[in-house]
Amino acid sequence: MKVLVIGGGAREHALCRSLSQDPAVTELHCAPGNAGIARVAALHPVDQLDGAAVTALARELGADLVVVGPEAPLVAGVADPLRAAGIPVFGPSAEAAQLEGSKAFAKDVMAGAGVPTARSYVCTTEQEAAEALDAFGAPYVVKDDGLAAGKGVVVTEDRAVALEHAKGCDRVVIEEYLDGPEVSLFAITDGTTVLPLVPAQDFKRALDGDQGPNTGGMGAYTPLPWAPEGLVEEVLATVLQPTVDELRRRGTPFSGLLYAGLALTSRGTRVIEFNARFGDPETQVVLARLRTPLAGVLLAAANGTLAELEPLRWDEDAAVTVVLASEGYPANPRTGDPIEGLDEAEADGTAFVLHAGTTSGAAGEVLTAGGRVLSVTATGADLAEARAKAYAGLAKISFKGAQHRTDIAAKAAQ
Ligand code: AMP
Questions:
Q1: What pLDDT band is residue 148 in, cutting at 50, 70 and 90?
Q2: pTM given for the model
Q3: Nearest CA to ligand 1 atom 3
Protein backbone atom coordinates (compact mmCIF):
# COMPACT_ATOMS: atom_id res chain seq x y z
CA MET A 1 0.00 0.00 0.00
CA LYS A 2 1.30 3.46 -0.92
CA VAL A 3 0.33 6.02 1.69
CA LEU A 4 0.56 9.82 1.54
CA VAL A 5 0.29 11.77 4.81
CA ILE A 6 -0.58 15.47 4.71
CA GLY A 7 0.87 17.71 7.44
CA GLY A 8 4.17 18.36 9.14
CA GLY A 9 3.84 18.24 12.92
CA ALA A 10 4.50 15.71 15.66
CA ARG A 11 1.06 14.19 15.06
CA GLU A 12 2.04 13.47 11.45
CA HIS A 13 5.41 12.15 12.61
CA ALA A 14 3.58 9.78 14.98
CA LEU A 15 1.25 8.72 12.15
CA CYS A 16 4.19 8.21 9.78
CA ARG A 17 6.13 6.26 12.41
CA SER A 18 3.22 3.86 12.94
CA LEU A 19 2.54 3.58 9.20
CA SER A 20 6.22 2.87 8.51
CA GLN A 21 6.02 -0.04 10.97
CA ASP A 22 3.00 -1.52 9.18
CA PRO A 23 4.18 -4.36 6.88
CA ALA A 24 1.33 -3.57 4.45
CA VAL A 25 2.86 -0.15 3.71
CA THR A 26 5.31 -0.40 0.83
CA GLU A 27 5.81 3.33 0.23
CA LEU A 28 5.33 6.23 2.61
CA HIS A 29 5.15 9.87 1.51
CA CYS A 30 4.47 13.07 3.42
CA ALA A 31 3.73 16.64 2.37
CA PRO A 32 5.22 18.87 3.55
CA GLY A 33 6.64 16.86 6.51
CA ASN A 34 9.57 17.94 8.69
CA ALA A 35 13.15 16.96 9.47
CA GLY A 36 12.09 13.96 11.58
CA ILE A 37 9.45 12.65 9.19
CA ALA A 38 12.12 12.72 6.46
CA ARG A 39 13.70 9.71 8.16
CA VAL A 40 10.68 7.47 7.54
CA ALA A 41 8.91 9.03 4.54
CA ALA A 42 9.72 10.75 1.25
CA LEU A 43 8.89 14.46 1.59
CA HIS A 44 7.11 16.58 -1.02
CA PRO A 45 7.08 20.38 -0.83
CA VAL A 46 3.37 20.71 -1.59
CA ASP A 47 1.08 23.31 -0.02
CA GLN A 48 -1.11 21.29 2.33
CA LEU A 49 -4.01 23.73 1.93
CA ASP A 50 -4.10 23.35 -1.85
CA GLY A 51 -6.56 20.55 -2.63
CA ALA A 52 -5.73 20.46 -6.35
CA ALA A 53 -1.99 20.21 -5.68
CA VAL A 54 -2.47 17.50 -3.04
CA THR A 55 -4.72 15.53 -5.41
CA ALA A 56 -2.20 15.87 -8.23
CA LEU A 57 0.55 14.59 -5.91
CA ALA A 58 -1.57 11.65 -4.77
CA ARG A 59 -2.28 10.75 -8.41
CA GLU A 60 1.36 11.08 -9.41
CA LEU A 61 2.44 8.81 -6.55
CA GLY A 62 -0.37 6.34 -7.19
CA ALA A 63 -1.36 6.67 -3.52
CA ASP A 64 -3.74 3.98 -2.24
CA LEU A 65 -4.56 6.08 0.81
CA VAL A 66 -4.18 9.74 1.76
CA VAL A 67 -4.24 10.63 5.45
CA VAL A 68 -4.94 14.29 6.18
CA GLY A 69 -3.47 15.12 9.60
CA PRO A 70 -4.15 18.75 10.60
CA GLU A 71 -7.41 20.66 10.90
CA ALA A 72 -6.49 23.52 8.54
CA PRO A 73 -6.43 21.43 5.33
CA LEU A 74 -9.53 19.52 6.43
CA VAL A 75 -11.51 22.71 7.08
CA ALA A 76 -10.13 24.12 3.81
CA GLY A 77 -11.67 21.08 2.07
CA VAL A 78 -8.54 19.25 0.93
CA ALA A 79 -10.24 15.85 1.40
CA ASP A 80 -13.01 16.74 -1.10
CA PRO A 81 -11.10 16.77 -4.43
CA LEU A 82 -9.26 13.62 -3.33
CA ARG A 83 -12.56 11.84 -2.74
CA ALA A 84 -13.97 13.20 -5.99
CA ALA A 85 -10.93 11.72 -7.77
CA GLY A 86 -11.75 8.32 -6.28
CA ILE A 87 -8.68 8.25 -4.00
CA PRO A 88 -9.34 6.74 -0.56
CA VAL A 89 -8.84 9.50 2.00
CA PHE A 90 -8.79 9.43 5.78
CA GLY A 91 -10.31 12.71 6.93
CA PRO A 92 -13.72 14.40 6.76
CA SER A 93 -15.13 16.63 4.02
CA ALA A 94 -15.02 20.41 4.44
CA GLU A 95 -18.66 20.37 5.48
CA ALA A 96 -18.22 17.68 8.13
CA ALA A 97 -14.97 19.29 9.36
CA GLN A 98 -17.11 22.27 10.41
CA LEU A 99 -17.59 20.22 13.55
CA GLU A 100 -14.16 21.61 14.44
CA GLY A 101 -14.09 24.64 12.15
CA SER A 102 -17.08 26.29 13.77
CA LYS A 103 -17.87 25.99 17.46
CA ALA A 104 -21.38 27.26 16.73
CA PHE A 105 -21.93 24.44 14.19
CA ALA A 106 -20.64 21.90 16.72
CA LYS A 107 -23.10 23.18 19.32
CA ASP A 108 -25.93 22.87 16.81
CA VAL A 109 -25.01 19.28 15.96
CA MET A 110 -24.77 18.42 19.66
CA ALA A 111 -28.19 19.93 20.30
CA GLY A 112 -29.63 17.88 17.41
CA ALA A 113 -27.94 14.70 18.62
CA GLY A 114 -28.80 15.20 22.30
CA VAL A 115 -25.12 15.19 23.25
CA PRO A 116 -24.33 16.65 26.68
CA THR A 117 -22.25 19.84 26.48
CA ALA A 118 -21.91 23.22 28.22
CA ARG A 119 -24.88 25.58 27.82
CA SER A 120 -23.81 28.40 25.53
CA TYR A 121 -24.65 31.53 23.59
CA VAL A 122 -23.34 32.51 20.18
CA CYS A 123 -22.63 36.27 20.20
CA THR A 124 -21.73 38.70 17.45
CA THR A 125 -21.86 42.05 19.31
CA GLU A 126 -20.20 43.35 22.45
CA GLN A 127 -23.60 43.88 24.02
CA GLU A 128 -24.60 40.25 23.44
CA ALA A 129 -21.25 39.06 24.77
CA ALA A 130 -21.60 41.16 27.92
CA GLU A 131 -25.07 39.79 28.56
CA ALA A 132 -23.91 36.20 28.03
CA LEU A 133 -20.98 36.68 30.43
CA ASP A 134 -23.33 37.96 33.10
CA ALA A 135 -25.82 35.17 32.49
CA PHE A 136 -23.21 32.51 33.36
CA GLY A 137 -20.97 34.41 35.80
CA ALA A 138 -17.33 33.59 36.61
CA PRO A 139 -15.24 31.70 35.66
CA TYR A 140 -15.89 33.00 32.15
CA VAL A 141 -15.35 30.83 29.06
CA VAL A 142 -15.02 32.71 25.76
CA LYS A 143 -14.28 30.88 22.50
CA ASP A 144 -13.47 32.29 19.10
CA ASP A 145 -15.95 30.63 16.73
CA GLY A 146 -13.33 29.80 14.09
CA LEU A 147 -10.14 27.74 14.01
CA ALA A 148 -7.46 29.05 16.38
CA ALA A 149 -5.00 26.16 16.87
CA GLY A 150 -6.10 25.65 20.45
CA LYS A 151 -5.41 29.27 21.30
CA GLY A 152 -8.82 30.84 20.67
CA VAL A 153 -10.21 29.98 24.08
CA VAL A 154 -9.95 32.18 27.16
CA VAL A 155 -10.98 30.88 30.57
CA THR A 156 -10.74 33.61 33.20
CA GLU A 157 -12.15 34.96 36.44
CA ASP A 158 -11.67 38.48 35.08
CA ARG A 159 -14.76 39.82 33.29
CA ALA A 160 -12.78 42.58 31.56
CA VAL A 161 -10.31 40.05 30.10
CA ALA A 162 -13.23 37.88 28.95
CA LEU A 163 -14.96 40.80 27.26
CA GLU A 164 -11.72 41.96 25.64
CA HIS A 165 -11.23 38.52 24.04
CA ALA A 166 -14.85 38.51 22.84
CA LYS A 167 -14.32 41.93 21.23
CA GLY A 168 -11.33 40.61 19.30
CA CYS A 169 -13.40 37.91 17.57
CA ASP A 170 -16.07 38.26 14.87
CA ARG A 171 -18.28 35.63 16.42
CA VAL A 172 -17.81 34.06 19.85
CA VAL A 173 -19.31 31.23 21.79
CA ILE A 174 -19.70 32.08 25.47
CA GLU A 175 -20.48 29.13 27.65
CA GLU A 176 -20.86 27.82 31.16
CA TYR A 177 -17.71 26.73 32.95
CA LEU A 178 -17.25 22.97 33.21
CA ASP A 179 -15.43 21.71 36.29
CA GLY A 180 -13.69 18.36 36.62
CA PRO A 181 -10.84 16.53 34.89
CA GLU A 182 -10.54 16.47 31.11
CA VAL A 183 -10.26 13.42 28.88
CA SER A 184 -9.48 13.19 25.18
CA LEU A 185 -11.20 10.29 23.49
CA PHE A 186 -10.53 9.65 19.79
CA ALA A 187 -12.70 7.51 17.58
CA ILE A 188 -12.11 6.29 14.04
CA THR A 189 -15.27 6.33 11.98
CA ASP A 190 -16.37 5.68 8.40
CA GLY A 191 -19.54 7.73 8.89
CA THR A 192 -21.54 4.83 10.33
CA THR A 193 -19.37 2.53 12.44
CA VAL A 194 -17.49 4.16 15.33
CA LEU A 195 -14.32 2.62 16.78
CA PRO A 196 -13.12 4.34 19.96
CA LEU A 197 -9.38 4.39 20.72
CA VAL A 198 -7.94 4.47 24.26
CA PRO A 199 -8.54 7.62 26.31
CA ALA A 200 -5.69 10.05 26.98
CA GLN A 201 -5.16 13.29 28.82
CA ASP A 202 -3.26 16.29 27.53
CA PHE A 203 -1.88 19.38 29.23
CA LYS A 204 -3.07 22.56 27.57
CA ARG A 205 -1.42 25.23 29.69
CA ALA A 206 2.14 26.33 29.01
CA LEU A 207 3.49 26.10 32.56
CA ASP A 208 3.68 23.60 35.42
CA GLY A 209 0.64 23.34 37.66
CA ASP A 210 -1.65 24.29 34.75
CA GLN A 211 -0.49 27.89 34.86
CA GLY A 212 0.18 30.23 31.96
CA PRO A 213 -1.55 30.61 28.62
CA ASN A 214 -3.39 27.91 26.64
CA THR A 215 -1.22 26.18 24.04
CA GLY A 216 -1.68 23.49 21.41
CA GLY A 217 -0.69 21.02 24.16
CA MET A 218 2.49 20.49 26.19
CA GLY A 219 2.32 16.76 26.90
CA ALA A 220 0.01 13.77 27.22
CA TYR A 221 -0.33 10.30 28.69
CA THR A 222 -2.40 7.15 28.47
CA PRO A 223 -3.99 5.14 30.11
CA LEU A 224 -5.90 7.14 32.71
CA PRO A 225 -5.78 5.09 35.91
CA TRP A 226 -8.24 7.46 37.58
CA ALA A 227 -10.93 7.34 34.90
CA PRO A 228 -14.24 5.73 35.85
CA GLU A 229 -14.87 2.22 34.59
CA GLY A 230 -17.05 2.09 31.50
CA LEU A 231 -16.12 5.63 30.42
CA VAL A 232 -15.34 4.65 26.83
CA GLU A 233 -18.59 2.70 26.44
CA GLU A 234 -20.55 5.60 27.95
CA VAL A 235 -18.97 8.18 25.66
CA LEU A 236 -19.46 5.93 22.64
CA ALA A 237 -23.17 5.60 23.45
CA THR A 238 -23.91 9.18 24.54
CA VAL A 239 -21.48 11.26 22.46
CA LEU A 240 -19.60 9.59 19.61
CA GLN A 241 -22.26 7.40 17.99
CA PRO A 242 -25.07 9.99 18.26
CA THR A 243 -22.81 12.68 16.74
CA VAL A 244 -21.78 10.47 13.82
CA ASP A 245 -25.43 9.47 13.29
CA GLU A 246 -26.60 13.10 13.41
CA LEU A 247 -24.02 14.21 10.84
CA ARG A 248 -25.02 11.37 8.53
CA ARG A 249 -28.69 12.26 8.99
CA ARG A 250 -27.89 15.87 7.98
CA GLY A 251 -26.30 14.70 4.75
CA THR A 252 -22.76 15.54 5.90
CA PRO A 253 -21.38 12.13 6.90
CA PHE A 254 -18.20 12.35 8.94
CA SER A 255 -15.44 9.92 8.11
CA GLY A 256 -12.01 10.14 9.68
CA LEU A 257 -11.03 10.84 13.25
CA LEU A 258 -13.62 12.23 15.62
CA TYR A 259 -11.98 13.68 18.71
CA ALA A 260 -14.12 14.33 21.75
CA GLY A 261 -12.63 16.68 24.36
CA LEU A 262 -14.57 15.83 27.50
CA ALA A 263 -14.95 17.21 31.01
CA LEU A 264 -15.93 14.70 33.70
CA THR A 265 -18.00 17.14 35.74
CA SER A 266 -19.83 16.65 39.00
CA ARG A 267 -23.01 16.51 36.92
CA GLY A 268 -21.76 13.96 34.41
CA THR A 269 -19.65 13.79 31.27
CA ARG A 270 -19.85 16.85 29.01
CA VAL A 271 -18.28 17.62 25.64
CA ILE A 272 -15.91 20.60 25.77
CA GLU A 273 -15.16 20.48 22.07
CA PHE A 274 -14.94 18.28 19.02
CA ASN A 275 -11.99 18.10 16.71
CA ALA A 276 -12.05 16.60 13.24
CA ARG A 277 -8.58 15.01 13.37
CA PHE A 278 -6.09 13.27 15.61
CA GLY A 279 -5.12 15.46 18.57
CA ASP A 280 -1.56 16.58 19.09
CA PRO A 281 0.08 15.52 21.49
CA GLU A 282 -2.37 12.74 22.47
CA THR A 283 -1.79 10.91 19.17
CA GLN A 284 1.84 10.40 20.14
CA VAL A 285 0.84 8.33 23.19
CA VAL A 286 -2.28 6.65 21.80
CA LEU A 287 -0.47 5.33 18.72
CA ALA A 288 2.47 4.25 20.88
CA ARG A 289 0.09 1.68 22.42
CA LEU A 290 -1.76 0.57 19.27
CA ARG A 291 -0.71 -2.92 18.17
CA THR A 292 -3.06 -3.31 15.20
CA PRO A 293 -1.22 -2.16 12.06
CA LEU A 294 -2.45 1.37 11.39
CA ALA A 295 -2.78 1.55 7.62
CA GLY A 296 -5.51 -1.09 7.39
CA VAL A 297 -7.58 0.70 10.05
CA LEU A 298 -7.37 4.08 8.32
CA LEU A 299 -8.08 2.49 4.93
CA ALA A 300 -11.17 0.73 6.30
CA ALA A 301 -12.44 4.09 7.57
CA ALA A 302 -11.76 5.66 4.17
CA ASN A 303 -13.52 2.81 2.35
CA GLY A 304 -16.51 2.51 4.67
CA THR A 305 -15.65 -1.02 5.82
CA LEU A 306 -14.85 -0.46 9.51
CA ALA A 307 -17.63 -2.83 10.59
CA GLU A 308 -15.66 -5.71 9.07
CA LEU A 309 -12.47 -4.93 11.00
CA GLU A 310 -11.19 -7.14 13.84
CA PRO A 311 -11.29 -5.41 17.25
CA LEU A 312 -8.26 -3.15 17.78
CA ARG A 313 -5.41 -4.60 19.84
CA TRP A 314 -3.60 -2.50 22.45
CA ASP A 315 -0.42 -2.72 24.52
CA GLU A 316 -0.93 -2.94 28.25
CA ASP A 317 1.97 -0.50 28.58
CA ALA A 318 1.59 3.14 29.54
CA ALA A 319 2.85 5.95 27.31
CA VAL A 320 3.93 9.50 28.10
CA THR A 321 4.96 12.32 25.77
CA VAL A 322 6.54 15.63 26.76
CA VAL A 323 6.63 18.58 24.37
CA LEU A 324 9.79 20.61 24.02
CA ALA A 325 8.80 24.09 22.87
CA SER A 326 10.78 27.11 21.77
CA GLU A 327 11.39 30.22 23.78
CA GLY A 328 8.43 32.59 23.64
CA TYR A 329 5.87 29.87 22.78
CA PRO A 330 2.90 30.32 22.48
CA ALA A 331 2.95 34.11 21.97
CA ASN A 332 6.20 34.66 20.03
CA PRO A 333 8.13 31.49 19.35
CA ARG A 334 11.75 31.94 18.37
CA THR A 335 12.99 29.76 15.49
CA GLY A 336 16.16 28.89 13.59
CA ASP A 337 18.20 27.48 16.50
CA PRO A 338 20.24 24.28 16.07
CA ILE A 339 19.00 21.30 18.09
CA GLU A 340 21.58 19.13 19.87
CA GLY A 341 21.30 15.63 21.29
CA LEU A 342 18.58 14.14 19.07
CA ASP A 343 20.48 10.90 18.44
CA GLU A 344 21.58 10.62 22.07
CA ALA A 345 17.96 10.88 23.22
CA GLU A 346 17.07 7.78 21.21
CA ALA A 347 20.41 5.97 21.49
CA ASP A 348 19.40 3.35 24.05
CA GLY A 349 15.89 2.84 22.68
CA THR A 350 14.34 4.14 25.88
CA ALA A 351 12.51 7.06 24.31
CA PHE A 352 11.70 8.18 20.79
CA VAL A 353 11.61 11.68 19.44
CA LEU A 354 8.80 12.94 17.25
CA HIS A 355 9.46 16.16 15.37
CA ALA A 356 6.96 19.02 15.23
CA GLY A 357 8.49 22.38 14.29
CA THR A 358 11.84 21.33 12.82
CA THR A 359 13.61 21.79 9.52
CA SER A 360 16.91 20.67 8.03
CA GLY A 361 19.67 23.28 7.77
CA ALA A 362 22.09 23.62 4.84
CA ALA A 363 24.67 21.36 6.49
CA GLY A 364 22.11 18.71 7.42
CA GLU A 365 21.74 19.99 10.97
CA VAL A 366 18.25 20.09 12.50
CA LEU A 367 16.89 23.56 13.32
CA THR A 368 13.88 24.73 15.30
CA ALA A 369 11.12 25.96 12.99
CA GLY A 370 8.04 26.43 15.15
CA GLY A 371 6.52 26.85 18.60
CA ARG A 372 6.25 23.22 19.52
CA VAL A 373 9.54 21.72 18.36
CA LEU A 374 9.65 18.09 19.52
CA SER A 375 7.60 15.50 21.40
CA VAL A 376 9.72 13.10 23.42
CA THR A 377 7.74 9.90 23.90
CA ALA A 378 8.28 6.69 25.85
CA THR A 379 6.36 3.63 26.94
CA GLY A 380 6.78 1.67 30.17
CA ALA A 381 5.13 -0.90 32.39
CA ASP A 382 3.32 1.93 34.17
CA LEU A 383 3.04 5.71 33.92
CA ALA A 384 5.90 6.26 36.39
CA GLU A 385 8.27 4.25 34.19
CA ALA A 386 7.07 5.78 30.92
CA ARG A 387 7.38 9.23 32.43
CA ALA A 388 10.90 8.64 33.76
CA LYS A 389 12.00 7.37 30.33
CA ALA A 390 10.44 10.28 28.43
CA TYR A 391 12.08 12.84 30.72
CA ALA A 392 15.43 10.98 30.54
CA GLY A 393 15.29 11.23 26.75
CA LEU A 394 14.26 14.87 26.86
CA ALA A 395 17.17 15.73 29.19
CA LYS A 396 19.64 14.84 26.43
CA ILE A 397 18.20 17.36 23.96
CA SER A 398 18.99 21.04 23.96
CA PHE A 399 18.46 24.19 21.94
CA LYS A 400 18.52 27.84 22.87
CA GLY A 401 15.56 28.85 25.03
CA ALA A 402 13.99 25.36 25.07
CA GLN A 403 11.07 25.06 27.48
CA HIS A 404 8.94 22.18 28.71
CA ARG A 405 6.64 21.26 31.56
CA THR A 406 8.12 19.08 34.29
CA ASP A 407 4.81 17.73 35.59
CA ILE A 408 3.37 15.79 32.63
CA ALA A 409 1.55 12.71 34.01
CA ALA A 410 3.09 13.35 37.45
CA LYS A 411 -0.15 13.22 39.42
CA ALA A 412 -1.55 10.22 37.54
CA ALA A 413 1.73 8.33 38.00
CA GLN A 414 1.62 8.53 41.82
P1 AMP B 1 -10.95 24.05 23.44
O2 AMP B 1 -10.14 24.72 22.39
O3 AMP B 1 -12.44 24.19 23.27
O4 AMP B 1 -10.49 22.64 23.70
O5 AMP B 1 -10.59 24.74 24.81
C6 AMP B 1 -9.26 24.76 25.28
C7 AMP B 1 -9.26 24.49 26.75
O8 AMP B 1 -10.03 25.49 27.44
C9 AMP B 1 -9.91 23.16 27.13
O10 AMP B 1 -9.04 22.08 27.03
C11 AMP B 1 -10.30 23.45 28.56
O12 AMP B 1 -9.21 23.30 29.42
C13 AMP B 1 -10.69 24.90 28.53
N14 AMP B 1 -12.15 25.01 28.37
C15 AMP B 1 -12.83 25.08 27.22
N16 AMP B 1 -14.16 25.15 27.44
C17 AMP B 1 -14.33 25.10 28.77
C18 AMP B 1 -15.48 25.13 29.64
N19 AMP B 1 -16.71 25.25 29.17
N20 AMP B 1 -15.26 25.06 30.95
C21 AMP B 1 -14.00 24.96 31.45
N22 AMP B 1 -12.88 24.94 30.70
C23 AMP B 1 -13.04 25.01 29.37
A1: low
A2: 0.95
A3: 273
